[in-house]
Design brief:
Residues 8-165 form the Type I restriction modification DNA specificity domain. It is built from 5 helices and 9 strands. The protein is an alpha+beta fold.
């Protein structure tokens, strides 16, 4: 990868960031309210199960847009999630930092891969604050530096990440089938 010093940027140079919004769930709500519990970073969320809130003048800056990144900054499990824009009216809870890319030099998928890299997550966790629930401050995420390769290299890294995740999913399914077969054989041997 060919990255020179001029290609290194702080996240705040390439994206706007803000915390999500805290709201009380309301079954009669008219806008979806995405919470950490709704996301499994390894799969797509089931949007039909997400709770709703009543829109009492929620600002546009809180409404999620396609390709917004949601960084789970609170708690023991930190990760970045790329919002696909499937649901038109959606806001994120205050457990997330919303990252909206403003630079044309970086793909949202690439930044998401970068923020999900174990070494980056470990670095961010070391900067977390709080006695009960650990929180990664937005300022720490904002100051994080990233090397920005060419678009072609970014696309290649994103494709490799997608293939890796698909491989992990297939491997997991194979293990589950093996476990199920073993259990069936054991149960059959008891008959």
């Amino acid at each position: 990868m060919d990255i020179t010093s001029k290609d290194i940027k702080r996240i705040s140079d390439i994206a706007m960031m803000q915390s999500g919004i805290y709201m009380k769930s309301d079954p009669a709500g008219d806008i979806k309210y995405l919470q950490v519990k709704d996301i499994n970073p390894r799969s797509k969320p089931d949007y039909s199960r997400i709770t709703t809130v009543v829109d009492r003048g929620i600002g546009d800056q809180y409404r999620l847009r396609k390709n917004d990144l949601l960084f789970a900054a609170k708690g023991a499990s930190n990760y970045c999630f790329l919002y696909d824009g499937v649901v038109e009216k959606m806001v994120a809870s205050s457990s997330f930092i919303i990252i909206r890319i403003i630079s044309k030099d970086i793909l949202p998928e690439f930044l998401c891969c970068f923020l999900n890299t174990p070494s980056v997550l470990n670095k961010l966790k070391k900067s977390s604050v709080g006695t009960g629930i650990q929180v990664i401050p937005q300022s720490v995420l904002s100051d994080l530096q990233i090397g920005i390769p060419s678009m072609q290299t970014q696309q290649l890294i994103v494709q490799m990440d997608q293939l890796r995740r698909e491989g992990e999913s297939i491997y997991s399914e194979i293990n589950e089938l093996k476990r199920s077969l073993q259990e069936q054989l054991l149960m059959d041997s008891l008959k």
